Amino acid sequence: MGIKYYTLPLITKKLINRKPISLCNLTQSISHYIHLVNTSYFGECTFDESFGCSVWLVDFDNLKSTNRLKDFIQESLYESLLKHERRLTELRVNVKIKQEELFGTERQNRIKKRIDIRIKGKVKKTSEDFSYVEYFYIGPLSY
User: What is the pTM of this model?
Assistant: First the structure.
């Protein structure tokens, strides 16, 4: 019997009531896990305080330059994924930060920082190329 990979969010009520739970393939499972690392802050998971990344630490940081923020987030994501996502090899993390204007009503246009994350690697089990792309707005964090 093969390994079962569950989708996120995991609906624990179904699990407790022994009802079918949504499954996904290995690549989707890795993508879900990376998203979980990206959206968790350090210390949020009490069983492992190193789980997460630094996006939360810079959420309202307007003092650091864009290059310093990019390097800080990129290094944090790389280290977290290297430690916690062991199903990937040849891991590469690329982060870009840019300002983007979000349009609301005439008086409520806002400029926020957008963090584009691109992660590449190889799936250990299958030797397939893996690619993951996600973006966030910070100040406050939204995705």
Answer: 0.82
